Amino acid sequence: MTTRALDPVARAAVEAVLARRTSGAVVEADNLALLAALPDGSVELAYADPPFATGTSRRLQTIRLGAGERERRGFRGGRERYEVTSDLAYEDGLPLADHLAALRERVREIHRVLAPDGSLYLHVDWRTVHHARLMLDEVFGPERFLNEIVWAYDYGGRSPDRWPRKHDTILWYAKGDAWTFERDAIDRVPYMAPGLVGPDKASRGKVPTDVWWMTIVPPGSKERTGYPTQKPVRLLERIIAASSRPGELVLDPYGGSGTTGVAAARLGRRWLLADRNPEAVGIARRRLAADVAATT
Ligand SMILES: C[S@@+](CC[C@H](N)C(=O)[O-])C[C@H]1O[C@@H](n2cnc3c(N)ncnc32)[C@H](O)[C@@H]1O
Fold it and tell me: What is the pTM of this model?
């Protein structure tokens, strides 16, 4: 498959970020086109949250109850009226082999654009984690593996016949034999057994382990954009605070609703996001503009 190069407007936006004339850009493009426009070693941190190979499109409808023409079964079998306030989707229908081939091509490019002390966080779930780990071993080298982070949440339906699948996996690999880990910049979490560590340590909390308990973006919260599979800003803030420094460049080739850009901007990093879905790009740009306006 051929991927078109970035259009001149997107290219100029990317060059302005690389030259530090602006702090960030969201480009509407296949991420291979963005990656091809980046010089070797130009990115300090990459976070990639590709589709999860579900074999279908990922769709999210947001509804408002108590108004509108539609009806659904409500509490105790009664009928309730509702209206659809947003209906957003992105494609995730590739057969597994094609999905993995496309991902491998992008992981190779991410490796090329990372700085010598840069790193990649690749966000996957049970469908592809085993393939992704081998792929990253192949491209980065098994000795560059740093962590397999488990993001555990607790929301949604329960399986009647197996343990509910309530975690994603984030694989962290370094490009070289040195990498950024800003331990003191990481948000701290409560000890599981505070009585065992004494009051001082207990009140400070601890640096999280590789298992992160963190809620999904709650329905109805201010943070929620309506974009399917939106990740929490808090998750990205933890990654960016730990693995980059102020002023450095953070890349998200599967930008979606712009979560990585919001977290990077709040932490004073530069950011480059790509998404091929125009609806995602619109949401990310509006969200970033509103967030920057709210904090200046
Ligand atoms: C899992 S979502 C990302 C969600 C994002 N982390 C957030 O918090 O909103 C994956 C995104 O990748 C985009 N995508 C998939 N393949 C792509 C490609 N080859 N180039 C650019 N974007 C792509 C989809 O349109 C979708 O928005």
Answer: 0.94
